[in-house]
Automatic annotation (TrEMBL), chains A, B:
Pfam families: NUDIX, WHD_NrtR
Name of the protein in question: ADP-ribose pyrophosphatase YjhB, NUDIX family
Domain of life: Bacteria
Domain Nudix hydrolase residues, every copy: 9-148
PROSITE patterns named in the record: NUDIX
Species annotation: Pedobacter xixiisoli
Length: 234, 234
DNA sequence: CCAAAAGTGTTACCTTTACACCCATGC
DNA sequence: GCATGGGTGTAAAGGTAACACTTTTGG
């Protein structure tokens, strides 16, 4: 029987940075940690990787358990592998960021899992290196969102251009010129204008759009320039 | 004593996709695997992560051991975490891509470690999922190289514009217009023209340039547009 | 009618692309 | 002097940014 002699073995966890958008601010889904150490402190949604599952599977499972949702946009972005990042025992964490339509998130589960949305700039202190993870995830989200139409994952099926613009402004902490933004978005071919208007935030009303899913899938990998004065900072 | 009960533990390895450039083609540094299973088959440079080192440390160590080089450009890009990717025992692999100036690589070590450069398109079959890793690393390199001036890491201190262009063409499998390429590169402010010329490949000779390291460091994170018809495909 | 938000138009400017052209020199 | 690779010039087309302007409608 071949074996890798006496190499050390470690625990492996996944942690998910779950972004949501309520129409105004970018939010983060956090849970109260249910095990020692640091029990009852705020933490990212995470869990250990089981023997029969891939890290991707583990992340999907953890998200399903905490939000009840399937088919969430999920992207592995970094491994945190410092020997002492968990004080109890060496644990590597594979970090994923997730984008979910906050409206799909059933509020009921909130109570079950002690999960809660926080505006990203008003979040509590997190355990271990989770604060760093959030900062890294945010940079990565900005980076990716400037080049790929990823932010649609955060919006409901029907959305308006002003909503979309607010989302881009929230993610990137910047003001964007409406005229240029609309032209740019319309020119991507990703938007399908609906007849219906959203009158909740103005008298004139803003047309609803939906995503052209076929084009979204086919063009997803292309590099767009969705931001003015593109200068990211990853 | 707090502990994480009976969660499973796994081996953790790092694997490095090491790119080099000889002035003509993009190359990959491979080694003959020295342990069972698949002993003597070609493999990426890798090793297990020791108890006292981070994954980054482990990657640096593995590279140092196999190339004798310090200060290599190294970037973690993905974790491979399928349960059965190693047939002997579950092992997660943290993949890094590395860029080295092939001229700095001391040929002598080649013999010591059975490492060898292969043109990227004429490489042998690799063990496990290493073929996938190479494909992924190459995509990632293209992506990053289109937006950040990362390819200078592959060049010697002095280089010419035609060399730089050949490198971009090799990485991206495309022909690039010389005039436009030169103008774009010169406009970045990253190049310092030297008085000396390289006459090895033409009668007229091509001016040597060196990298403006200060500008390289300060502007590294900015998003350039270093390729024509930018349309990547990560 | 007016305020306020949605959305369009206009223009100056810059970048990109394609390609023609000039330059230097060893043979 | 001419072939060869190095390097510059140019003009058309397209994209970007700034901002003025029009539209709609509830109060």
């Amino acid at each position: 029987m071949i074996e890798y002699s006496s190499q050390p073995h470690y625990l492996v966890a996944v942690d998910c940075i779950v972004f949501g958008f309520d129409g105004e601010t970018l939010k983060l889904l956090l849970v109260k940690r249910s095990l020692e150490p640091e029990i009852n402190k705020w933490s990212l949604i995470g869990g250990f990787v089981g023997a029969e599952e891939s890290t991707d599977d583990a992340a999907i499972k953890v998200l399903k358990k905490n939000t009840g949702l399937d088919g969430i946009y999920l992207e592995q972005f970094k491994v945190y592998g410092k020997p002492d990042r968990d004080p109890i025992e060496r644990t590597l964490s594979v970090a994923y960021f997730a984008l979910i339509d906050i409206k799909k998130y059933s509020q009921q589960l909130n109570a079950d899992y002690h999960a809660e949305w926080f505006p990203i700039n008003e979040r509590p202190e997190l355990i271990f290196d989770h604060n760093t993870m959030v900062a890294d995830a945010r940079k990565r989200l900005r980076y990716k969102a400037a080049l790929h139409p990823i932010l649609f994952e955060l919006l409901p099926k029907k959305f308006t251009l002003p909503q979309l613009q607010t989302l881009f402004e929230a993610v990137n902490d910047m003001k964007i010129d409406t005229g240029n933004f609309n032209r740019k978005m319309n020119s991507t071919g990703l938007l399908v204008k609906l007849d219906e208007k959203d009158k909740s935030s103005s008298k004139k009303g803003a047309y609803y759009f939906k995503l052209n899913h076929k084009k979204y899938r086919s063009d997803f990998h292309l590099v767009f320039n969705l931001l003015p004065n593109l200068s990211l900072d990853l």
